Structures are given as C-alpha cells and as structure tokens.
Amino acid sequence: MKFFSLLIVGLVFSLSVQASDQSEVESVVDRYFESIQVYDTAIMSSMMHPEALKRFRTPILNALEGSKREQAEMELLPLFSVSNVEQYKSLTDVEAYKRLNDFVAKAQPQLIALMKSTDFEVVNIALKGDIAYVNYTLTMNIQDQSVEKDVVQKLKLHDGSWMLLLPPDGEATIAGIEARFK
Hints:
With 182 residues, the protein is α+β, with helices and mostly antiparallel strands. Helices cover 59% and strands 22% of the residues.
C-alpha cells in the first residue's frame, strides 16, 4: 500500500511539473509570436538558445575563413552590416542574429506587413526531456487568400529558461550556406 501511495504521489508531482513546463513553454512561444508580429528583432534574437545561435554562426564563420572566402565576404558580410570579417567576428551571436533579421526587414518590408496580420495558434506542446516541441498553425493573408502552414518549433531549456532552437527554414538556410561555400 505504501508503494502505491508513493507511486501516485510521484505521478501527481511529475504531471504537475510537466503542466508547469508546458505553461512556461506556451508563455515563451506567445511572447515570440508577439515579437514576430511587430518584427522586434532584439526580442526575437534574445529568445534564441545559445546552441541555435552557435549553429547559425559556425557555417558563416567557416565560409568567411574557407576556400571561397572572397565570395563569402561579398555575399555574407552585407547581411550583417559589416565591411570585414573582423567586424563580423566582433559581434556577439545574438547581435549577428539580430543584424541578419534587421537586414531581412529592410530588404523585404512587405514581410513586416505580412507578419503584423499573421495569426498563430498553438495546436499542442510535447515535452521530451529538455526539449519542447510546439506544433502551431500559422495563418497569413497573401493576395487576399488565407494561407495556413503547420509548423513545429523546438525549444530547449537553458539555465532554467525555455529558449528557441532554429526553425526548419533556418536550418535549411544554414545547410544552403554550408553547401554553397564548401
């Protein structure tokens, strides 16, 4: 009987911790959605997990120091509003990510308007260890057509806080850079 009581207490505790984590994840995701809708690149960048930022920066640094460095400098440095590799290296990971998002905002102002009218709806959250998988539906109005896209965003714990990992399109961009400057 004592064993079953301990098992039940452990199960209740585990479920309450998981519910708390899900609530925290949802809060982080809601804040991220809000920052996307106003395209606040400072908030968006500060919410990225250090591992994601490292994953983002490493291929760019490799390209800037690799065999195709001249081509990489011409194509990549303007994305970060720097004129040489040393300036790029002096940026923090968060600053580099922010500058890339700032570049996108300047280059694609219609994207900002689209993001302001985008709706985000969390479908479910699944926790597996220190990783959270957030499935959400993104609904945009493109040329008077409502377009829905299902997205999975991963978050990972860092120093007790849930932070975003690179989204699938971010991973695809990094893979493209790796292939282009190999």
